[in-house]
Amino acid sequence: MDYPKSVPGAGLVNGRFVDENALAGTPGSLIPASWGNGVTQEIINVIQAAGITPSEETYNQLLAALRGTGLFLTAPQFDNDKTVATTEFVARSGLQYAGFDVYSTHAALTSKDIGGVASFASETPVTAKLPATTGVLHGATVRIINAGNGVVTISTTLATDKLSGSNGAEGTVSIGLGETAEFIKLNAQWRLIGGTATSKYSAMFSSSLQPNGWKRIPDTTSPTGYVIEQWGVSSSGTDANGVLVTFPMSFPNAVRNINVTDGGPTCASFGVSFGSLSQFRLYGRDHNGVYANWTGLWRAIGY
């Protein structure tokens, strides 16, 4: 669209319309029908694109079209050109939290906490219930922070909603002082996907806290990605053959160290020999170097 510069006799001055000046004796500009029709049609096109029927008696249709939902198109996700961003585009871009709310006691979170951060600051244990998933956009998130000394136990508002850890195990999630937990809405489920709480549900931090148990500790230099520490209680036997002890779990690559301490009231001398990645042999002697049956508390490290 432009001024009718190519129309003879339009009377433009410096390319623009001017009024008639009777004192100076200069005529005013003429508005050709083609130009008037063009301007009107340009506006009508915008109104119709918004799904509005043009009306001669309504004078705010262009404004209504610009403020409506049917005019602008949402650009593809992660688009980085100069297209105007709709609220739909912004909502799925993940650029910011929707808000930050502080709670000092038990609370059932609502839709206003969706996309935001809920910070709990209590000196005693409290519960935080995630919003009902009904009507919540698939992929929406909620982040919870524990800024108090009381443990925050996170569950769901609706009994029909599921709450699961990052490993898929269902149940409540508890976070202590300084810990965080971020959840994503998946159908009728809130799934833990972020925050320090994910470590508790990661295989890298898995463990068995039995008398004969083990735990994994992440380590970037290990070919497995973690170091394994194991422990247990075993008798050493009464002769030079000792006792063959089986680890609670086999070491995938190597055993680096085994330490044994006396499990009784006396001071014994222990020795070990490596058998395999799944076993070692434990020996025990008395103060005179004679093989005897002792109870040893052992601890092994490997990867």
Describe the structure.
The chain is mainly beta. The protein contains 3 helices and 18 strands. The protein has 3 domains: 35 residues, no CATH class; 97 residues, Jelly Rolls (Sandwich), CATH 2.60.120; 98 residues, Sandwich (Immunoglobulin-like). The model has no long low-confidence stretch (mean pLDDT 90). Helix 1 packs across helix 2. The protein has a 6-stranded mixed β-sheet, with no helix packed on it. The protein starts with 32 loop residues before the first helix and ends with a strand.
Quick summary of this structure?
The chain has helices at residues 33-49, 61-67, 87-91; strands at residues 100-103, 107-108, 117-120, 126-130, 141-146, 152-156, 162-164, 173-175, 180-185, 189-194, 207-208, 213-218, 226-235, 243-246, 255-262, 269-274, 279-285, 295-302.
Highlighted features:
five-stranded antiparallel β-sheet, 303 residues, Jelly Rolls, 3 helices, 10% helix, mainly beta, 3 domains, six-stranded mixed β-sheet, 18 strands, Immunoglobulin-like
Mean of residue pLDDT values: 90
Helix content: under 10%
Number of separate domains: 3
Task: Tell me what portion of residues adopts beta-strand conformation.
Answer: 25-35%
Overall geometry: elongated
CATH topology of the largest domain: Immunoglobulin-like
Order of the strands making up the biggest sheet? 1-3-5-9-10-7
Instruction: Quickly count the helices.
Output: 3
Quickly name the level 1 CATH class of the largest domain: Mainly Beta
CATH architecture descriptor text of the largest domain: Sandwich
Q: H/E order of the elements?
A: HHHEEEEEEEEEEEEEEEEEE
* N- and C-termini, Cα separation: 73 Å
> Biggest β-sheet: count, sense, barrel?
6 strands, mixed
Helix-and-strand structural type: mainly beta
Oligomer: single chain
